DNA sequence: GTTCTAGAAC
DNA sequence: GTTCTAGAAC
């Protein structure tokens, strides 16, 4: 790649003729730069630094900090370089750090320094062939660091063995690789025209794609109790001013290898340190891909106050990083001038967030690896509530980059998304985004909504909006953690719940759906689920099923059906009771939610709900189903325009297993609220045919004990359009003539005069 | 499951 | 002001 490919920033600023203080004054525009040169002796670092310093045509004041010369005749130290760099930056100057910096550890303190004083930290890698460096260093005379002749060849070889390619995650905002003098010249030219207020785009430029894999960058991925723990670097605190940093460094001074090319360097590593390094690399390579890249959610659509949004991001990030160790988060924005990015960066630094575990990044979220050199196995999508492509921005970009695979995979996981929630979609390996960028999962997230045509519009309610935005990020991070945990093959303290997602459920696709995860709504009470559900006992699969047995507490009001089932003779004169058999009672629902709404109530004591049903109950279920079909037929004879659905509520409110037979007009005054609607039109409603089939195959029914589907937005059961409230929904469904969703047209899930081969008169 | 009602939304 | 939702009580 051309080294200046990323220098798209215009450099047409007025040239500041004065240096130093003048540059500092202009800080509002661009930033100072700390250029960390990376290269062995003979690679041309000093020549590069002198060329930039001497050729600056744009008024940017440069200071060269060179370890070879900083000791005034004696061997210079890293500490001296750090101090000199800190001083120069404090004076508003940009710094060229002229030392080898071949190892991550050698660079780390300088990067930290640059990030602390909020300057851009660049790496310029002088990646020339070893023989070139050797030949230059061997033959040169009067080298500043007195490294020349035969000794130089040995040192260059030794150092190159230890070379660790710089990576953005070390804290660099930009890395440029120079393979030859031509590349070097281009980079020098780029800096020469970089005015005091200019800045260069973030990213990696000129890297050879088959470069070595960088493992050292993963040192942030410590796990408590593991050997990696020992390698967590000194904790960075916001109050850690430069002098304090220097104190810290001075303690380590004896351990630090000299900057330029000390022959002694190799001896500085004790055996124990080597062992630690090896074990670190081994562990870290296992979890090296656990990185989530996410865009800023809702800030464009919602016109969210960016200051508040950045607080929310930083808070949510801090919370999740505190809870989990082995993850890395990256906030991505396309624009170099992104305000949300700079706000978040500043606040994260102030909040003492480890910049290795969370950082901001300028780039295209769909090309982080190929263009940015940043490997992220999971990326978040600022999705729309329909989970559909389009709309521009990140959503469109991700759908475009991932191809149709993403649409298909998303559809298998969920139909919609509520504000403040997220859903994980495993990205098929056939997707270009998977193949090219190494992205294995997309997590769709939906922030607060302000479009009055959509459900849950917040208008200008920032309190609520903030809450939802925080929920959205938390949900995103929890889902990401769940992916990481499942990749690591273990469930930690707080595994994110794995649930069947919203939308279509059928035996055919239930497997894939289970692989998707929806967010857990921690604040919501699960009133219908009693503690004995024992979610924490779930081990493999983690699908809560059939766990609600005999000990569920039923309120007195919930006992009516049980009472009826046990003593149907007491009700035989009631108008509501249509049929009594040994197995069941058929009755009109007391509060019908449609023109026709009938219950087939099992008479078996102990079968409180579907969760209690086992294979031995199949004959009963089949008989209940047949009774339902028989009565449906009768109703269709009375009104052939009706369409019926037969099914069970996942978690019923009334005790005693009962099958609903309900016409799909939903034209009833008793249908009053969201829970009523969603209990019949979401996955909460399990079709009788599917329940029977699953019990035949698995021995029990898969039940989502998650009642969040009941709180979902109101959508037409035919055309899936959304409506803000019950009255509007009702007026819509009264007129909606759309055909039913295709899955309902299969397997006799819908019964009508045509499917039952009756005459339509 | 429904009813009642406070308070949010309009 | 009225409409609508959501939570508590039953």
TrEMBL record:
Pfam families: AAA_33, DcpS_C, Macro, zf-C2HE. Gene3D superfamilies: HIT-like, Leucine Aminopeptidase, subunit E, domain 1, P-loop containing nucleotide triphosphate hydrolases. Residues 1-28, 494-525 are annotated as: Disordered. GO terms for cellular component: nucleus. GO terms for biological process: single strand break repair. Residues 510-522 have a biased composition (Basic and acidic residues). Residues 345-547 form the Macro domain. PROSITE patterns: HIT_1 (PS00892), MACRO (PS51154). Residues 1-18 have a biased composition (Polar residues). GO terms for molecular function: DNA 5'-adenosine monophosphate hydrolase activity; double-stranded RNA binding; mismatched DNA binding; single-strand break-containing DNA binding; single-stranded DNA binding. It comes from the Eukaryota. InterPro entries: Histidine_triad_CS, HIT-like_sf, Macro_dom, Macro_dom-like, P-loop_NTPase, Znf-C2HE. This is Macro domain-containing protein.
